[in-house]
Amino acid sequence: MKIRRRCFWLALVAIAACKPAFAQEDPAKYPSKPIHIIVGFTAGGGNDIIARVYGQKLSESLGQPVIIENRPGAGAIVATEYVAKSAPDGYTLLVGASGMAINQAVFEKLPYDSVRDFVAISELASFPLILIVNPSSTIRSVAELVAFAKQNPDKTNYASSSASFQLVTELFKQKTGAPMQVIPYKGANDSVLAVISGQVTATIADAGPALSQVLGGHARALAVAAPTRVEELPDVPTLTEAGADVDAVLWSGLFAPKGTPPEIVKKLEAEIMRIAKLPDVVTRLKPLGILPVGNSSQEFSKILSDDIARWTAVAKAGNIKIAQ
What we know:
With 324 residues, this protein is an alpha/beta fold. It contains 11 helices and 11 strands.
C-alpha cells in the first residue's frame, strides 16, 4: 500500500512538472498579448530608432502593442543576457547589433553565446559609421587626425559605446598606426555628444545620432566607414578613399531566445521582410543613412556566423580581449 501511495504522489509531481509545457500558447494564435523588444543601447541611437520604426509597424500588422525597452549597459551585454534567459515564446525579442558578433570575438567570457542561445530572425537594417570630430577642431581630414594622434599620443582619445565601435576604431588604428585611447560611453548618442562637448578627440558612430549633428554643423565628418559615400554627405570620403582601408558597415537585426517555436520565427521573419520594403519605412530611415534590409532567418544566421569569424580574426591580430 505504501509503495502504491508513493507511486501515486510521484506521478502527480511528474504531471505538475509537465504543466508548463502543456500551458504554452498555440503558436497559431501568436501574438495574443504585448510583445517586448529589448534594445541594449540608450534612446536616440541608430538601433533604438530602427527598433521603434519596425516596432510600430509590427504593432499595426499583428494587432498587439510592441513595447520598446532600452536596457543599456556593458556594450549591450546586459540586454542580450536578459533576452537569452527569457521565455522562448516570442514575447521577448532583442534588437541586436553587429555587437552580437563582435562581443563574441573580443570578450573573454560572455553570459551567453550569440549562436547557441539565439535564433536570428531577420536583419532589420545596415548602416554606415561616420568618423567625426568637433567642428572647432583644427583636424579637417583623416590624414590630419592620424598626424595629430602620432604627435599627441597622450592627448588623443575616442569615445566608444560598445565593442562594435571600439573594434572598428581599433581596426582604423591598425591600418593607420594612429595611437588613440578609448573612453567608454553608454550609447552612441552619448559618444557623439562627447565629441560635440569637447570631452574626446573623435568617435566613430552610427549614422542615426551622428548624421543630424553633422548636417546641423555641430560635428565635422572626416569619413564614412562604408563601401560607398553616404548620399546625404556627398563630399565626405569613405575611409578607404581617405587611405585608411577600413570598410565596416554594421547591421541591426531581430533575435529571439533559442527554442522559440519555428512557426513564430517564420511569422516574424515574414513581417520583417514585408516591413523593410514599405515606402514610408525607407523614407523614415534613409535620411539617417540607414538602409532597411529584411532577409530570411537562414541568410541572417550566416551573416552572424561570418561576422564572428571576421571580427575574431581582427581582434586576434590586434591582441584585443576584454575581460567581462
